[in-house]
Give the backbone structure.
Amino acid sequence: MYQSIANDEFYQKQKKKLLSILDVREKEEFASGHIPNAHNLPLSQLSLCSDKLNKNTSYYVICQSGRRSAQACTFLSSHGYQVTNVMGGMSTWKGQIE
């Protein structure tokens, strides 16, 4: 099972510390704006590319609304990864998008 974090709490946490953030939106969505330092790993490619992730790293997973990130967290946690779903996703992100 995985953890979840409210968007406000996530925002405050990432301001204080460099977090490992996975953005599971498609490449076009990511290109239109994303959280600084986030890595794009689209949900559609997750099963093919998840072996590139480090099982000793805690990842914060975000998408547009929280639905795809929850799916990604379910998949990743079942494969031994430490993941936290960012609830509300980019639709409620309050930080500056770059």
